[in-house]
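Saturday, quiet lab. Running sequence design on the structure tokens for the scaffold JK sent over.
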């Protein structure tokens, strides 16, 4: 067993001592330890960046989720208006900004002739659209990726604006064709 000298220099020192204790008693390799520590540091840094930018732009983040697949996930809203979500997987190179749009099967039938227009409009704005059929409805996921190096207040806001335009276009096409 490796012994590490303990430095009790305040709360950071105590936290560092607890982390070392976990690592020393862990059956993982040094490489695995470094990978886990890098992921923890990335999560802390990315969460702080997302929370700071959201606060600066007057956005509210809710439904925080972190699990084996997600480094971070938040629903985004402004006031009572939902704007979508932001997420990042542990191995993703950046953040995914998106929204889920559900259409009943009956409405989807009348919406079908216009789906190409929606796909083209969204793609022109940097938003991808994927569709999945579930029982009784069609779910459209609209999203874009912002690579970590380019993630800042402006790219985040621009992506949210483009996403909002795509959702509005989908709602308009759906309401126009169901009147």
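Result came back. Writing it out in full:
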């Amino acid at each position: 067993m490796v012994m590490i000298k303990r430095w009790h220099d305040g709360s950071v020192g105590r936290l560092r001592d607890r982390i070392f204790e976990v690592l020393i008693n862990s059956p993982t390799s040094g490489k695995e330890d470094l990978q886990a520590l890098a992921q923890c540091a990335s999560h802390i840094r990315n969460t702080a960046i997302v929370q700071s930018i959201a606060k600066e732009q007057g956005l509210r983040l809710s439904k925080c989720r972190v699990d084996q697949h997600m480094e971070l996930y938040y629903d985004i809203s402004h006031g009572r208006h939902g704007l979508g979500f932001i997420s990042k997987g542990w191995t993703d190179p950046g953040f995914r900004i998106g929204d889920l749009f559900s259409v009943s099967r009956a409405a989807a039938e009348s919406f079908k002739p216009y789906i190409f227009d929606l796909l083209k409009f969204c793609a022109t704005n940097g938003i991808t659209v994927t569709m999945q059929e579930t029982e009784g409805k069609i779910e459209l996921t609209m999203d874009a990726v912002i690579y970590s190096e380019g993630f800042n207040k402006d790219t985040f806001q621009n992506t949210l604006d483009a996403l909002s335009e795509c959702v509005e276009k989908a709602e308009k096409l759906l309401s126009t064709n169901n009147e």
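Notes for JK: The chain has a mean pLDDT of 88. Helices lie at 11-24, 30-56, 105-111, 115-124, 153-176. Ask whether to fix the surface positions before the next round.
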